[in-house]
Amino acid sequence: MTDAFDHAARLLADAPRILVFTGAGISTESGIPDFRGPDGLWTKVDPDDFTIQRYRANREVRVARWKMHQQGALWGARSSVRPNRAHEAVVELWRGGRMSGCVTQNIDGLHQAAGLPDDQVAELHGNIRKVHCLGCGARWETEEVLRWVDAGEEDPSCPHCGGLVKTTTVMFGEYLPLDQVQRAERFAAEADAVLVVGSTLSVYPAAQIPLDVVRRGGPMVIVNLGPTDGDRLAAARIEGKAGDVLPRLVDAILSSS
Ligand code: NAD
Q: Virtual CA dihedral for 226, 230, 231, 233, nearest 10 degrees?
């Protein structure tokens, strides 16, 4: 084991409550590309189709999007993506009573699929496995809405108010969900340290959450492949794959208590 690993493990072992902050990098080993790499999402789809204005205005965009969900694209309920060893290690940290909460930028729902309860996860950018009505706010599992699509509704609408329905994933032009932001702030306020996994810490306001812990004097440990915008503020930085590093790191934290 490296010096960086030992240093990080010691810092986190000394912290009673750890905030886990995750980005696209925790899910690449589950087969979901990050955004900025050579195989990233923006090399395959047009980012302009992911604005709320386009979604509201253009039936064709909505029909195409539901068809993608129906066919198991976009890493949702009908896809074959599964949590990996890093998601499982986060669950172990929670089971060990050492996590203040998990804040994620990911929309894939894999933290819960690995076993974290919904109320332990703040999903700052929403969840592709959940749908809401843009009119009245009614909510469904995406799978339920996909059954309406299967039955022939190409562009499903809300059965209560007739409003447009959409997965809860935050599109360009939308606000972050207030309840999730408040939950994330509470997790950060209760944390003595923060563990960042697989994020460039370059997307705001999400990246503000780990920095809240740093501002209160808590150490930040970063596990990432490649540099991040938070490296200068990190107390320790481990260069490596989340699926290799996290199980060992969580073992070291839990076995030292
Ligand atoms: P990012 O793409 O900016 O950064 C991901 C970082 O993780 C990169 O530095 C990359 O080198 C690193 N990485 C890749 N594989 C790794 C691994 N196995 N172990 C450790 N590090 C690894 O991602 P971000 O910071 O999350 O921000 C991008 C935005 O994209 C976010 O807003 C997020 O909502 C969204 N996004 C979500 C998903 C998802 O839900 N899985 C996927 C792609 C993008």
A: -170
56 with 134: CB under 8 angstroms?
Answer: yes
Using the mean position of ligand 1's atoms as its centre, give its distance from the Cα of residue 200 in Å: 7
The candidate with the shortest Cα–Cα distance to 234, out of 207, 257, 254, is 207
Angle at 134 (CA atoms; ends 132, 140), nearest 5 degrees: 15
Counts of helices then strands in the chain (DSSP H, E): 9, 9
CA 221 from chain centre, in angstroms, equals 18
User: Cα(53)–Cα(218) distance, rounded to whole angstroms?
Assistant: 40
Q: Is residue 121 helix, strand or coil?
A: strand
For 197, list phi and psi in degrees, rounded to 5.
Answer: -130, 120
Which one of 87, 111, 125, 132 is the catalytic residue? 125
How far apart (Å, rounded) are the C-alpha atoms in residues 106 and 196?
Answer: 13
pTM of the predicted protein model: 0.94
What pLDDT, on the 0 to 100 scale, is given for residue 74?
81
* Exposure on the CB side of residue 195, measured as CA atoms within 13 A: 34
In angstroms, how far is CA 60 from the centroid of its own chain? 28
Which amino acid residue places its CA nearest to atom 18 of ligand 1?
241
Query: Using a 6 Å cutoff on CB, does residue 176 contact ligand 1?
Result: no
- For residue 241, give the amino acid letter: K
Give bridge partners of residue 193 from the DSSP assignment: 18
Query: Using one digit for the tens of pLDDT, what is the confidence trace for 88-133?
Result: 999 999 999 999 999 999 999 999 999 999 999 999 999 999 999 9
